[in-house]
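thread: overnight batch results

M.L. [08:02]
morning all. the overnight job finished for the chain we discussed friday. pasting input first so we're all looking at the same thing
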Amino acid sequence: MTKLQPPSLALLDKYRGGDFQPLYTTSVTVRGGEAAHGRASGIAQSDDNQLQVALRLPAELGGPGGGTNPEQLFAAGYAACFHGALSLLAANAGLPIPQDTVVKASVAFGRDPVDGLYALTAHVDIHLPGMDEAVAQELVRNAERLCPYSKMARQGIQSVVAVTQ
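M.L. [08:03]
and the structure it wrote out:
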């Protein structure tokens, strides 16, 4: 079995190209399931089959619960990415990141007062036990600039929605 290792610090090297340069691309397909509604009864499956999860509407939204929902998936991605950014930056600075560092991303689905429809909000809490407060604050601010989820939350994301036949 291969021992898991953190990624190379080369990921922190600046890119100076003119266009977006994809380093990794994945796809997840959602089918509607029993209720023909991806959010209420769907199955989400990644193109490499490493992710396959039943989607269920949470009880708070009138569903039965008992499955994962899009907000949980987004929160998991955000927390994992932010934790990774913290770890890379700490290693690059020669700082030992506490083994029990915790990143908790909370995502809320709710009504949008701008258009009356729906929106998401996110709140990220970082626990860096034993780390000097000023050092922790600087590390978190730098991770906020590095983490693409934070950048997306701050600036938006380029998105193309298209009908395919």
